[in-house]
Sequence to fold (529 residues):
Amino acid sequence: MSKKTIVVCDHIHQDGLDILANDSEIEFINAADEPKDKLLAEFIPLADVAITRSSTDVDDAFLAQAKKVTAVVRAGVGVDNVDIPGSSKQGIVVMNVPTANTIAAVELTMTHMLSCVRTFPYAHNNLKLDRVWRRQDWYGTELKDKKLGIIGFGNIGSRVGKRAKAFEMDIVAYDPYIDPSKATDLDIGYTKNFEDILACDIITIHTPKNSETIGMIGKDEIAKMKDGVILINCARGGLYDEDALLEGLTSGKIAMAGIDVFNKEPATDHPLLDLDNVTVTPHLGANTKESQKNIAIQAAENAIAAAKGIAYPNALNLPIKENELPDFVRPYLELIQKIGHLSAQITKSAVKSIKVSAAGPVAEHLESMGTFATVGVLTESLGDQINYVNAEFVADERDIEITKEVKPNNSGFTNKVGVKLTTAAGTISIAGTVFDDTEQRIIEIDDYILDVDPKGTMIFFRNTDTPGVIGDVGRIMAENGLNISDFRLGRDSKKQALAVVRVDGQVKKELLEQLASLEACISVAHATL
Ligand SMILES: NC(=O)C1=CN([C@@H]2O[C@H](COP(=O)(O)OP(=O)(O)OC[C@H]3O[C@@H](n4cnc5c(N)ncnc54)[C@H](O)[C@@H]3O)[C@@H](O)[C@H]2O)C=CC1
Ligand SMILES: O=C(O)CCC(=O)C(=O)O
Fold:
């Protein structure tokens, strides 16, 4: 097998680089020191997997060069600089490393908070750079008893809360997407009313950057805040509207701001840097040795797993979250993909629509069923180009309608899944179930009730139900030197029958022609899974 290439686009810890260098099945290129135009022009086209940090945007320019790329590993949490829909269209799995830098970001937030209340960098510079000893100039305030508002109470926000508790602060969390007990169990207040946050002495934000959170704190919100409020942002530039922040800091409405992140980075020319009531750092939230080491190791291991096609840990655009999938569902996903693939092979014609159905508890996973069935159907025409990430995008581009339906569970089976495929040549419906947790079976093809193990090479022979047909089919197989390993028969009420014949060898065109020439034959097709 040829080696897979992993390109490291930004600086990561040496331990991660060592893991990549020591894997004999991986070709590894460290392009972290290359200028971005050279990275895109020369290295990204070689990559099977790319490791990025916040300095490399996965945007149109990146994706245009990422012809071979199957996965991008963002060595950090925030993926606001990764075009996830664009990546999905190209079949690129986007993964992040969600918790390895949590503590680093939490501690930097506390650093900014403490630095703001004690104007720490200004006192420090006054003594160190100006050699001035004027204790009367540097009176700060205390965190104790101050009201802290935390926007976004996830990994980082909640841990900031815990640390702020140790400083005896009075804390309130705003995060509509969590169970309030996540805050109240820590003896931290929880509010659904954003105004409660605006009434705080210190506000810190820890949400992702997205259309809902950009500019979440703007001019109007700042106007409602206490005079002398302190704002901290160690999440993403732009969550606080930067013009409004600037205005508030200049007018004195905002006493201090602790800022690690900017709308546009690097930000060496930003007007915030001219003010003397800000503490600033150049996006250092993740910059501790511990965090960088952990992130690099996890990013390298995950990139290798993805390059080898073994696993996609923390994938953000896959239809299923591996760790959340109940065991009983996996064989159904596999089965519905096989059913999709079978349907496309039997009909062998331009696909118009894919209708996916499920009955029983498995129907809770209908969305994933739809993706797996679509992969199965499109694999017939697109082979390796189709995967779980791009399947529905590709179907949409080809005007293939995908519908999903939960059916009443009246089949007698605990679960039943099915695909109705409509093509230019007609329609086929195939349904299946799983016995004993693992045994996949096709139980219906159109109106025929069957019991077929969907594997190997199969011939689907539909005929008028007259005597001698099975004998003729057997004879033709024997004449063509094909061994029959399984033979299943279904009959319908219209005096027609369907035989599904599993054979050991390859099905040749001549054999199919001979079967088609039998008088009783209505149709013949073959498929291999
Ligand atoms: N400065 C730096 O170097 C670093 C910055 N970050 C940033 O911090 C952010 C948060 O990281 P984590 O806590 O690990 O993520 P997380 O996913 O654990 O937490 C984010 C929280 O924000 C909440 N949220 C989402 N939309 C919201 C809204 N409209 N209002 C209120 N809450 C909302 C979510 O429910 C979630 O609980 C990341 O998205 C990343 O952008 C993360 C690590 C380092
Ligand atoms: O080190 C980085 O790339 C920035 C870390 C960060 O902002 C994140 O993980 O979201």
The pocket of 2-oxoglutaric acid (ligand 2) is lined by residues 53-54, 76-78, 101, 283, 285-286 (CB under 6 Å). The chain has four domains: 4-99+290-307, 102-280, 325-446, 456-529. The longest strand covers residues 426-435. The chain is about 30% helix and 25% strand.
